[in-house]
């Protein structure tokens, strides 16, 4: 009997690792995005199969992504070997905050000098959505939009290596930002620091842009110190 050599040919072996890698990267990026945007909270457990179902990705690439994030210390293992979102210590939070002030301040200053008008308008539109969320007490959405605002501003600086570091910091601190507005908004804000940032961008004022992002990170995150261990 002659074997059918038509449409049932298996794909070339070299194609399979690419498919596997793409799925693993997709799982990895989905988890990172969820961490950055406060969709996962400190202490959340991430057992393999429920996490795979939640993100719509099969278990094998999800396992690889979880392992990768554990190695990077964005996730950790509990005593039973289950992957969990780690708690930050006070020292870790303060260190991340200081690095963010430095790097995001540099990006804000750079963006004030080189950003195009359409980029500034897009950031302004995003901030309007953010302010509406705060106004209506939709703090979960506000946390998400706040993350998007900061990362979009950093990206406007066109400093890819710096942006990569900033994104990594947000992966580490994003989960605790679910508590960002637990105590309400800071009472010493005449206007939200985001507005000062936007004004500085419109005026092409790098010093004011850097100063505004510094105070946003410093003052806006002060209440988070209540939610970290010593």
UniProtKB/TrEMBL annotation:
* Region annotated Disordered, chain positions: 1-25
- Could you tell me the keywords of this UniProt record? DNA-binding, Transcription, Transcription regulation
> GO molecular function: any one?
DNA-binding transcription factor activity
Q: Does the keyword Transcription regulation apply?
A: yes
Q: Does the keyword Transcription apply?
A: yes
Superkingdom field? Bacteria
Which portions of the chain have biased composition (kind: Basic and acidic residues)?
A: 1-24
Q: Which residues form the HTH gntR-type domain?
A: 21-87
Which InterPro entries does the record associate with it?
A: GntR_C, TF_FadR/GntR_C, Tscrpt_reg_HTH_GntR, WH-like_DNA-bd_sf, WH_DNA-bd_sf
What is the name of the protein in this document? GntR family transcriptional regulator
> Native species of this protein?
Roseovarius bejariae
């Amino acid at each position: 009997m002659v074997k059918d050599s038509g449409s049932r040919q298996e794909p070339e072996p070299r194609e399979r690792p690419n498919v596997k890698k793409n799925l693993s990267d997709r799982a990895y990026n989905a988890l990172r995005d969820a961490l950055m945007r406060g969709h996962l909270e400190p202490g959340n457990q991430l057992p393999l199969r429920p996490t795979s179902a939640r993100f719509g990705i099969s278990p094998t690439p999800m396992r690889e992504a979880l392992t990768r994030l554990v190695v990077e210390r964005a996730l950790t293992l509990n005593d039973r070997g289950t992957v969990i979102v780690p708690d930050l210590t006070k020292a870790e939070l303060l260190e991340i905050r200081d690095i963010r002030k430095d790097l995001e301040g540099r990006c804000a200053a750079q963006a004030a000098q080189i950003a195009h008008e359409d980029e500034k308008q897009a950031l302004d539109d995003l901030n309007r959505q953010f302010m509406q969320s705060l106004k209506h007490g939709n703090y979960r959405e506000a946390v998400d939009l706040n993350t998007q605002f900061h990362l979009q501003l950093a990206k406007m600086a066109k400093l890819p290596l710096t942006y990569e570091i900033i994104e990594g910091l947000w992966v580490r601190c994003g989960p605790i930002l679910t508590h960002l507005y637990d105590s309400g908004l800071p009472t010493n804000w005449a206007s939200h620091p985001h507005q000062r940032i936007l004004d500085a961008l419109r005026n092409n004022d790098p010093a004011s842009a850097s100063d505004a992002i510094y105070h946003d990170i410093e003052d806006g995150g002060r209440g988070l110190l209540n939610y970290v261990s010593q």
